[in-house]
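User: Show me sequence and structure for the first protein, then do the same for the second.

Assistant: Starting with the first protein.
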Amino acid sequence: MNEVEIADLRRLTEVIREKYNYDFSNYAMSSFRRRIQRVLELYKFSSVDALLKRLQDEPRFVKEFVSEVTVNVTEMFRDPSFWRELRDHVLPNILLNTQSISIWHAGCSSGEEVFSMAILLREMGILNKCKIIATDLDADIIQRAKSGVYPLKNMELNQKNYVRFQGQASLDKYYREEQGKVLMDKSLIEHVSFREHNLVSGAAFSKFDLVLCRNVMIYFNQTLQNNVLKLFHESLFKYGYLVVGSKESLIWCEIANKFIVVNNEEKIYKKVKD
């Protein structure tokens, strides 16, 4: 299959924005192109025109398309050293100044990160002191996160991560197996509110002690990253923490001087100026 042309991508983003209000125009071009290529192959479309026709003829297909384009591969306790840093330093620091912790998982995808956080908080004995909001722009993936049902084959990697994180128990304490699937313990997410929220066009809706947005912004161009980082700055209490993905950074952005680097290796930043 030929490489998708830039002109085709532009047409595609315009139609989706005008008709369905999803704005992909600030996505990093190379990553967006790869994802569109994948959609064409997956659905056996002969061209971008064929994809556009289906998007226009079948509004139901739009949701599926958005899911495919924004798909995030995720795992539990990804980057175990980060989770240790969170448990040993970041959360104890937050608890010096507050009785309860508010946490935002921005771009929560299928929920593995949210369950990891809940397990960590339960092992620290502070899960009931935490208010967690998990958001994503894809309604279907939010439902998947809420359901807490995952393929059993993914658990081997998750378990390895948990061991390297040095968890207190064994990961299988937090789920049960059923017909090749894993059902997570629902009591872990009793205090989690799952919501649809679009980082591209959404506004600040609350204040948090800790915001996690890991491996989401790598798909955005600089303009969009800048806007999203401003949104996070606005959403944090002073001295609150922001965590981004291992390939992401705040150093270059407009509001860089309002944060200090807490841990450069794990990409943890602290807001020091309003």
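Switching to the second protein now.
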Amino acid sequence: MNRSSFILGTRGSALARVQTTMVGEALRAVAPQLLLEEKIVATTGDVKQSLSLHEPVSEGSGLFTRQLEEALLAGEIDAAVHSLKDLPVVTPPGLKLAAILPRANVTDVVITRELGGWKKLALGAVVGTSSPRRLEWVRSQRSDLLVKPIRGNVPTRLRKFADAVILARAGLERLGFDLGIVNNEGRFLFEGRELFVTELTDLLPAPGQGAIAIETRAENNDPEFEQALKKIHHEETARCVEAERLLLRYLGGGCHMALGALTTIDPASQQLHLRATYVPFPLAKLREGEATGTTPGEVALRVATQLGEKLAVI
């Protein structure tokens, strides 16, 4: 007998809740009869905010996903909603990526407190980011700036950053901030104060950035629920992010890698084009690669060969 009520698991941050609401709305649009509930699951990355996001830790990968996956396997939730870039490149046995929503804007932005953008920051100004990819970009652009790790959800980072902070544009816009970006510059109000935005169009995003993934058990899901997930799945986005995640996997995987990657699809030929940048260790020379091909595996392997001396076996 088919069920009618299903539980979507989510982290408790404002952005995670918004993204789960987006998934719920998409499912209701294709299957109005479904009754959907949300369940907040605290993850290690949420609870232990002192943990480094850019270095291997004893807890291993999946700081923002593991507890959601455990809840899935235990039958406590029916689907887990993730920011795809948070997901480890290897899906645990018994689980699968059942659907990926259409990708949002993939670019990063620098937010500053003063007019003039990040290029006008004073010598020695402090830029907040916990991403090695963003750190190496700042070093390559302005070695005089001081980069410091910053943790917390988006509102927390907007409250506590010193002179500048780098965030994903998609997350800000999903939270309802009207950035007003024109010619890569914009501004918005946060808690009564005006903040200034510079879009970083020359910085490639993290693999999977801007995409929302829905993870389920690999088997024994309700057929009606499975069918609804198939209807909201966006195949073009899935092909693109698969190439980026395969590249990450070939290079060894992990959020501690300074890897930027972006795949696009030619509308006429349906060929995939993957561009990537990689800094293999701090202060190393930037490596660049790109390839065009018909499958995610093909372009990922070709670019990985350009970027890495030794590839992981997958």
